[in-house]
Queue: 2 jobs
Job 1
Amino acid sequence: MLTARPRGPFDPAVWRSPLRGAWLASVLSVALLVLLVIDAITGYLSHAAYQPNLGNSFSGGGLDRSLFGWQWPTHPSWLYAVTQGAHVTAGVAAMPILAAKLWAVMPKLYKWPPARSLADLLERLMLALLVGSSILLLGTGLLNISYWYPWQFSFVVVHYYAAYVFVGAMLGHVLIKLPLMRRSFHERGVLKPLRDDVAHTVSEPADPETSAPNNPGVPTVSRRGLLGLVGASSAGLVVLFVGESLGGPLRKIALLGPRGRQPGPGPNGFQVNKTATGVGIKPQGTGIGYRLTLRGRRGMQLSRQDLLALPQHTYVLPIACVEGWSTTQTWTGVRLSDLARMTGVQGPDTAFVQSLEQGGSFSHATLNSGQVGDERSLLALKVNGADLSLDHGFPARVIVPALPGVHNTKWVKEITFSGGVPA
Ligand SMILES: Nc1nc2c(c(=O)[nH]1)N[C@H]1C(S)=C(S)[C@@H](COP(=O)(O)O)O[C@H]1N2
Ligand SMILES: [Mo]
């Protein structure tokens, strides 16, 4: 019978921490809200930049999905490095705070009876969606950057749709809880409880609306001690991650950065996402017999020698991976717009780039008109003055400012320019 309250965690007397209550929950919520709003905004920006084709293949998606004709820009060149670096960093920083928040409100999970009214039931269902989607988003995000797309197809789809569930449930939760939070800050002050040491740490009065205990135990840590620990965990994780985005000396201690791979010294000594052997690039294909196929109003085939004979341009541009790491290098090669003109196309609407790589999610990409038209957008042949290494895309790769790394196709085999006017 529902009225017979079960024992164990359903007995409120077992939840005794005097730290729990509206203030602690509110403080953790504010921190979490800031980080998760950053994550939601940068996440949707990433989606706009990346345009994965959710329905069937991963990338090479439709520029038809540009938002009201708005295209992801090429200025500033570090745009995606910053938005995606912030996305991953904020997500990492949020993890200990989410754990603390769940601990702070844990007694509510065991509320008895589970729901008092239909409204109560709906709110609890929404909370289940909120908690579930938060854990799912942070968890799949972490797995993705740690293990390098272990389930590449479902990751993007799951992460993307879970974000809608999350944003909706979070909005509802904030609207419902805002009055309680305001009341708590009003009564106790926003920062005042941080002044109390353990000896002065007292429980908030028991209140069925909050997680304050009705049978508080003796405090063993102050609220500021707990929050200090949570903050230090969060900051520590950030330090171990953020070097992959910021570079400099922090990169050396970016222990949790992707794979911790040491790329070695030299002009090509920077992070490799996938190696040539890893994706089955055959030496025959990249050797002396290599030909780049161009299609537009007319087609042609060019050897690497032909490409080197064209006007060369050099720009300092980042590769910014969706996983949050980025690296800025000096690239030299042929302008994509020059290649388009050679095929008789001026100002193409799109360029469809295909790799020698067979199949797979990264073997092709579609660039928008601004991306092809930018003078810094290159089919790069060299990096830092040396020929591209096989792992960085030899004989030729795409480098476009502010483009998500995944669309900077390596080992380019063919480019098709569409739209535009006759050159
Ligand atoms: N053909 C092909 N191009 C590719 C990839 C790939 O796996 N195959 N990886 C992409 C991803 S996800 C990134 S972040 C960049 C990384 O470039 P790098 O390995 O030279 O650093 O290349 C992109 N181009
Ligand atoms: Mo990437």
Job 2
Amino acid sequence: MSDDVLQSRRRLLRAALAAGGASLLAGCDALSDSERFVDLLSLAEPLNRGVQRALTGARLAQEFPASMIAPTFRPNGTLAPQTQEYRALQADGFRNYRLQVFGMVERPLEFSLDALRALPNRTQITRHDCVEGWSVIGQWTGVPLAHLLDLARPKPGARIVVFHCFDDLAGDGSRYYESVDLADAYHPQTIAAHRLNGAPVPIANGAPVRMRIERKLGYKQPKYVRAIELAPSYAAFGGGRGGYWEDRGYDWWGGI
Ligand SMILES: Nc1nc2c(c(=O)[nH]1)N[C@H]1C(S)=C(S)[C@@H](COP(=O)(O)O)O[C@H]1N2
Ligand SMILES: [Mo]
């Protein structure tokens, strides 16, 4: 069974378990490795899919009043990318920055910051949760990824959206990357954010554009986004597990 299928089953299972209580969650990964259990899941899949959609399909992450915005949005991971391509863009005030949308799309596109500002934008005050055990509330403004995808028109067979970043967190010449499925890509709170707390996104928080994918943990909020690629799976990227931290053992789903 492919990783993708396994991942989507795990996800369905988590949603179903969320309905019945979270106490079984810890055993989830071990359970899904059992073939008998997988068979059982296949039988229940149409039902689980319905349960999952009902529970999480339209669920919005909580949004907060302006009074709860933290004075500074604590940064983490890369704080100032040192790659040549980023430094060149930064030196120019990101005037030459273009956000690319490519891969399995009918119409590959690129957007300058002005072009992004001119598109429909969404502003949301949300809480960022890092697995290190801290949270911070901030106000983000950006273009819904759904809108960018509608313009680019994903081809049939595209199932994963990969975010390519400018920074080399590992220090080995690779680049930070992340990926989500189409349901999270089209979620109304998933935005390509270019403003934080009423100002352009600071360098430390991912300038000029970082994703906000509000039902996900911190490591699934890629900063310094260079390009958005539609693909059939995440297997061909990085270490093949769907993201920088996933390649180092973190869960691909990373939901909150
Ligand atoms: N490109 C890139 N994106 C990244 C990271 C990173 O190092 N590089 N760190 C991740 C982690 S672990 C967290 S908690 C958040 C931190 O976002 P912040 O710096 O705006 O707080 O970014 C995530 N996205
Ligand atoms: Mo994090």
